[in-house]
Amino acid sequence: MMENLDDFEKRLQNLKKPDLMTEHQMYLKLPLLHARKSAAIGWWLVALPCFMLACVIMKEIFKADYAVIDTFFNTLSTFDRAHGWWFSPLLFFIFPLMAAAMNLLALLNVIYDKAHKELIITIKLRFWNLFLIVLGFALALIIGFYVIIENSVEKSMHHLEQLKQIEKTK
Amino acid sequence: MQWFVRKGIFFKPTSLIGWGLLLLTVGYAVYAFIEVERHAHSASDTLINWSFRVILIGVFYSMIGYFTSAKE
Asked: 20 to 30 A from A138, CA-CA: which of A1, A32, A43, B18?
């Protein structure tokens, strides 16, 4: 019995001690944005793309023929002509991306553990910030796809018209 | 540099510069309404064009508010 106890004690002494996580640990916290302030500005940044998307959905999907929607698109093209080609991409693509990125940075917490050479990334669970991240990325994605598809359709229509003209001349 | 304090999604001015910026923003909104109203053909025409400009100026006002408001 005593021999067994000695053997057990020896085995316990030879066990490898776990490292203490809190001691001698170097933290490098990346500077974060304020979660509430980021959510506040996020709403402003996604307001116009949401408005535009609602107009596009009403016009293209529900085939709504309101003069209001046409006026809105006319205003946009007037703004585009007045400010240059960068105005619409900034408003409808960069702004929602900015909203998503700002809210993501507000929730992300990056810690560098120097002793273990680990990068620990955590995300705070705040509903409105998470909602704005999803909304911002979704808007940028949808509007990006919409622009690409519309552009390619326009190009193919133009190509088709050119082909028709060539056929006519023959 | 603390010109504003956050109240929900709005930034309330707390300094003279902040109030000046708010006055400029409101002034532009009024000017935009008058200009849009001059060229509009109906009430909805006015509203849709005016709200577009108001949101746009609101974005820029909020951006200034974001960077110049107190830390939370």
From this structure: A32
Cβ-Cβ contacts under 8 Å for A1 (sequence gap 6 or more): none
pLDDT per residue as tens digits for the range A95-115: 999 999 989 988 888 888 888
Residue A96 has a CB neighbour count (10 Å cut-off) of 29
For residues A49 and A143, the answer to whether their CB atoms sit within 8 Å is yes
Q: Which residues of A touch B56 (CB under 8 A)?
A: 48, 91
SS3 assignment, position A106:
helix
| Cα angle B22, A55, B38; round to 5 | 55
Angle at alpha carbon of residue A92, lines to A152 and A100, rounded to 5°: 120
This model of the complex carries an ipTM of 0.74
Q: Do B52 and A44 touch (CB under 8 A)?
A: no
Number of C-beta neighbours around residue B46 at 10 A: 17
d(CA B59, CA B53): 10
Q: Number of helices (H) and strands (E), helices first, in chain B? A: 2, 2
Cα(B30)–Cα(A75) distance, rounded to whole angstroms?
18
Identify which of A37, A51, A68 has the shortest CB distance to residue B45: A68
Element (H, E) at B11: strand B10-13
